[in-house]
């Protein structure tokens, strides 16, 4: 009986998280009520407070992406390898059922709230991109690491929000090599070219 209760609790939590992601993604934090989430999950609203404590804590768990701490501090792993793992965890991981929304999308729909913007910034820049800055070893390392973040978030948005045909249908294996090539290009640091806009292939100036 105790094992059944544990399974029921886990299933209820999962159903509430999936319902919360859909609601928060569609209506934002302010436009979503706990009764609506509970109704979508088919449970009483009091269970939200029992399992999560508050609407704010439910939101925090709904948008959390599990990424190992210190991911970029292993000296044996190159930046392309680290980006490959983040691509799998942030973009291609299934975060719920087939209709569940991606946590980043859920946060983006609620960025009108300062605390949500702060959480999004911390999760993107402080959690996993901070380690990347140290690994680039360039004067503009933070910029380069944030460009990696922009690449990953952009891929996620193109897949989950825009629904672009090629990216939406592409598998992780099809995508990872191309992403690694772009990250490797960011590691290139030709002397005398840092900070200068690239010219055209025909030798003329870059378009203004």
What does this structure look like?
By secondary structure, the chain is mainly alpha-helical. The protein has 2 domains: about 1-60, Arc Repressor Mutant, subunit A, CATH 1.10.10; about 70-185, Tetracycline Repressor, domain 2 (Orthogonal Bundle). It is about 65% helix and about 0% strand. The protein has 10 helices and no strands. The longest helix is centred in the first third of the chain and has 26 residues, at about 1-25. It holds the Pfam family TetR_N. InterPro entries: Homeodomain-like_sf, HTH-type_TetR-like_transc_reg, HTH_TetR, Tet_transcr_reg_TetR-rel_C_sf, TetR_C_16.
Primary descriptors:
208 residues, mainly alpha, Arc Repressor Mutant, subunit A, Tetracycline Repressor, domain 2, 2 domains, 64% helix, elongated, disordered N terminus
In summary, what is this structure?
The chain is mainly α.
Poorly predicted runs of 5 or more residues: 1-5, 190-208
Overall strand count? 0
CATH domain class name of the largest domain: Mainly Alpha
Provide the CATH topology of the largest domain: Tetracycline Repressor, domain 2
How far apart are the termini? Answer: 70 Å
In terms of structural class, how would the helical and strand content be classed? mainly alpha
Shape: elongated
Beta-strand percent range = under 5%
């Amino acid at each position: 009986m105790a094992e059944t209760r544990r399974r029921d609790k886990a299933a209820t939590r999962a159903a509430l998280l999936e319902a919360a992601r859909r609601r928060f993604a569609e209506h934002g934090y302010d436009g979503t009520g706990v009764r609506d989430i509970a109704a979508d999950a088919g449970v009483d609203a009091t269970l939200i407070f029992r399992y999560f404590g508050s609407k704010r804590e439910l939101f925090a768990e709904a948008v959390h992406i599990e990424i190992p701490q210190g991911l970029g501090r292993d000296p044996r792993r190159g930046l392309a390898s680290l980006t490959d793992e983040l691509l799998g965890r942030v973009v291609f991981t299934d975060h719920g059922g087939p209709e569940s929304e991606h946590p980043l999308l859920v946060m983006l729909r609620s960025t009108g709230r300062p605390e949500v913007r702060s959480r999004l910034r911390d999760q993107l820049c402080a959690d996993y991109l901070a380690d990347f800055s140290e690994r680039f070893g360039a004067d503009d390392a933070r910029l380069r690491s944030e460009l990696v973040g922009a690449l990953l978030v952009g891929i996620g948005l193109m897949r989950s929000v825009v629904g672009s045909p090629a990216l939406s249908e592409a598998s992780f294996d099809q995508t990872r090599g191309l992403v690694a090539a772009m990250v490797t290009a960011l590691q290139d640091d030709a002397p005398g070219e840092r900070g200068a806009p690239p010219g055209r292939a025909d030798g003329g100036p870059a378009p203004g």
